[in-house]
């Protein structure tokens, strides 16, 4: 299989935010990340697609160190990922993550969910944290739900709260790992629209998704993964109209014709 990832010079570009260089990881005998080289520039929206089990989630989790890697380097703003302690908590705030499952705190209100990290990690005053939480909840369209508990909200609303919670930390980058996969179909668009708006506002984003409409309209670049490798990187137009590898052609024929 031909690897067609873009190679860049060693000196970091001024607009480079996240850089993975020759990253490798195993789960036992499974080589889940193989020689991953990926650069994400400030303001860029990168959509990661590929078959189930290809390593997309592991890649995301490695970027905020929910998974460690065995070799290679991952840098954010030119600095290697911190190993532990307060700096690691700060990294997790700098790298907002939204998962398939909403993982909000069930025993806290929507408002408290969005305030918590601001107070604990960013050391914000409670009143300032509340103001910001309310603004962000309005921005994602759930301002009127602030005093409810997560279970009282629909899946689409909960996922928008999860986005607001990550945004409350003023992240440098947002990672989305199949954020709409667990949603009922009628709720997918409300979440994608919030993500579209974020992209338009200039947020740096890595989005693992099978929503090809989103990829086509919001992505600057599509990264196609298979078997732990980045097999192709291309603009959405190039990728969807002229995939180069057999692996990508095969994958696209399956997802576009079902
Ligand atoms: N904690 C883990 N322990 C062992 N194997 C894992 C673990 N997490 C993921 N895997 C395996 O690694 C492979 C890649 O997983 P993942 O990154 O979740 O892929 P994707 O998100 O592309 O579906 C899969 O084969 C999965 O079963
Ligand atoms: Mg996954």
TrEMBL record:
It is found in: Cell membrane. This is ABC-type polar-amino-acid transporter. It is a peripheral membrane protein. Belongs to the ABC transporter superfamily. It holds the Pfam family ABC_tran. It catalyses: a polar amino acid(out) + ATP + H2O = a polar amino acid(in) + ADP + phosphate + H(+). Keywords: Amino-acid transport, ATP-binding, Cell membrane, Membrane, Nucleotide-binding, Transport. It is an enzyme of class 7 (translocase). One of its GO terms (molecular function) is ATP binding. InterPro entries: AAA+_ATPase, ABC_ATPase_HisP-typ, ABC_transporter-like_ATP-bd, ABC_transporter-like_CS, MetN_ABC_transporter-like, P-loop_NTPase. GO terms for cellular component: plasma membrane. Its EC number is 7.4.2.1. Residues 18-252 form the ABC transporter domain.
